[in-house]
Design goal:
The protein is an alpha+beta fold. Helices cover about 60% and strands about 10% of the residues. Belongs to the AAE transporter (TC 2.A.81) family.
Length: about 550
């Protein structure tokens, strides 16, 4: 009576499309459930989907090969693209601060793993293709495995008599070790170093405040006779730093105006300033003294409002081109983009989703809102044309063959690095044509988590298939021992050097560890375990360069030692 249900839910050797979908749903559903359970203070989050997939694969659940490849690759594309959009605005600026240091540490970890693999090649007598598979699994790097397989295929085409082993076997045996190894290193190092995530977060915020100072507003009363009769333009030019004067009230009146740059200053005038705190303090000390005047904050004459950029015709236009003050008697005092406050400059280019804080008359604000768009509803609606246009560009970039002289095989960035690099560039420059970087926060988190769940389910079920048989046939314990050297030696050195020599915040270090091993499972775990999104930022900062180096190292080892 219930044969149809058994056929649907129980594993089969040759799965149908429906059975493949059921296997994916079972892996994701059970994984998310177990990921929410606490083991002490530890929760695995969506990374548990990987392990439930392994168990289901071991007990016979299968996914059709075409569906498996699609689910794995599409999930990875969604995940890395979401990460790129989330951290893009801060990615490039980070190289002025800590990004270069993070990438040096991460790439050194990649090169050390390659050196250990070469050492094992000479010590163990294993074929290099098996060791490259072990290396790729030990560092959970699928693009490196793909590059190795492509290299082997190209060499086989040129030399048909040459026989190679399958690096996928070593990859499948050591992949769980790679995932658990990074997670175990994060847990053990946190315990041994007595890390308090709350304290690390406070240190991170303090360092960020020191690097990225917020904009503030202050009031000044003009008392320095040197500036009496001078225009605002002359005064700011002499001061030499960027500040915005949003309001002015002449002495003896209660009339508040948004001043033009040719307005002259008089004794005891009161100004409302916007800028960096140190700049404002220095300006106040130069022209007068702090003011406690309350009339200048009144909204009777001029209003303050936030306006969202949603009109496609306005995107990539500069504030100077809009000329809002001369046209509408309205002044922009701040621009909010990707959680950051930006001081408005005439040369500032507007991106889709920017929030402008403006002051002016009610009529002027209403007119500008019509021009700029100001449709919050539009920002909540997903723009699939922009999203899938960006994903397409990422796939194209990842598929471009990079020909390197003296190498017989072109190298590709793949579906991991291509979409990530495109997302970083789009979010940095605001978009390309109709493709823009804005996606509301909830949609970004959904895209990342949904993508990584698909990826984990496909990889887990595939790795679980025949895992035990391969483990016995190829002396799995010995291969795991080799994998341990590749997994743990670079990680341990990274923790020691990163924490004690480079003085890197542990929340950031966890992201570097996950990014160096291109391991979404470890990243997902660390964000849950440390209750912080900081690891995501450093993960994305090192991921593109690390992926490129992983691809090069895997290919070069095959070419030089096969």
């Amino acid at each position: 009576m219930f044969d149809w249900l058994k056929l649907l839910l129980l594993p089969g050797e040759i799965p149908t499309v429906t059975q493949s979908i059921v296997a994916i749903m079972l892996a994701i559903g059970t994984g998310v459930f177990f990921g929410r359970l606490k083991l002490g203070k530890i929760t695995f989050g969506v990374s548990a989907v990987m392990f439930t997939g392994l168990i289901l694969g071991h007990f016979g659940y299968r996914i059709q090969p075409g569906i498996l490849d699609f689910i794995r690759d599409f999930g990875l594309i969604l995940f890395v693209y979401g990460i790129g959009l989330q951290v893009g605005p801060s990615f490039f600026s980070s190289f002025k601060n800590e990004g270069l240091k993070f990438n040096i540490l991460a790439v050194s970890c990649v090169l050390l793993g390659g050196i250990i693999t070469v050492g094992l090649f000479y010590l163990t007598g294993l074929k290099i293709e098996d060791l490259v598979g072990i290396m790729s699994g030990s560092v959970t790097n699928t693009p490196g495995l793909g590059a190795a397989k492509n290299t082997i295929e190209e060499i086989t085409n040129s030399f048909p008599d040459k026989k190679f082993g399958d690096p996928t076997i070593g990859y499948a045996i050591t992949y769980p070790l790679g995932v658990f190894g990074i997670i175990a290193t994060i847990i053990i190092s946190k315990l041994l170093l007595k890390i308090n995530p709350d304290e690390e977060m406070k240190k991170f915020r303090k360092s960020k405040i020191n690097r990225e100072l917020p904009l503030v507003h202050k009031k000044v009363r003009i008392t320095n006779p040197y500036y009496f009769g001078k225009t605002l333009h002359q005064t700011i030019k002499e001061f030499g730093r960027e500040i915005v004067i949003s309001r002015l009230k002449h002495s003896g009146t209660i009339v508040v105006q948004s001043p033009t740059m040719d307005v002259q200053l008089h004794d005891r005038d009161v100004l409302m300033l916007v800028g960096l705190e140190k700049d404002l303090d220095d300006f106040i000390a130069t022209v007068g003294r702090p003011s406690s005047d309350l009339f200048i904050e009144s909204d009777k004459q001029i209003l303050k409002k936030n306006i969202f950029v949603t009109n496609p015709k306005i995107i990539h236009k500069k504030l100077s081109e809009l000329d809002l003050y001369n046209t509408f008697d309205l002044k922009v005092t701040r621009v909010f983009r990707a959680g950051k406050e930006i001081l408005p400059r005439p040369s500032l280019e507007l991106f889709y989703g920017d929030k402008l804080r403006v002051i002016g008359s009610k009529e002027g604000i209403e007119e500008v809102a019509k021009i700029i768009g100001n449709s919050e509803k539009k920002l909540l609606e997903p723009d699939f044309l922009s999203l899938f246009g960006g994903l397409l560009l990422g796939v194209i970039l990842g598929s471009i063959p990079i020909v390197i002289p003296s190498l017989p095989v072109p190298i590709k960035l793949g579906f991991a690095a291509g979409p990530l690099i495109v997302a970083l560039l789009i979010s940095r420059y605001g978009g390309i044509a109709f493709i823009h970087s804005y996606i509301n926060t909830g949609a970004t988190y959904f895209m990342k988590d949904f993508g990584i769940c698909l990826f984990f389910a496909a990889v887990g079920i595939h790795a679980g298939d025949g895992f035990y048989d391969n483990f016995i046939q190829y002396h799995g314990w010995l291969w795991l021992l080799y994998g341990c050297a590749i997994t743990f030696i670079p990680l341990i050195l990274m923790v020691i050097i990163g924490r004690f020599i480079m003085k890197i915040n542990f929340l950031q270090l966890a992201g570097i560890m996950s990014g160096s091993y291109t391991d979404p499972a470890a990243l997902s775990f660390s964000t849950n375990y440390l209750d912080s999104d900081i690891p995501i930022q450093t993960y994305a900062q090192v991921y593109p360069l690390v992926t490129i180096f992983r691809i090069f190292v895997a290919s070069l080892l095959i070419l030089f030692f096969s």
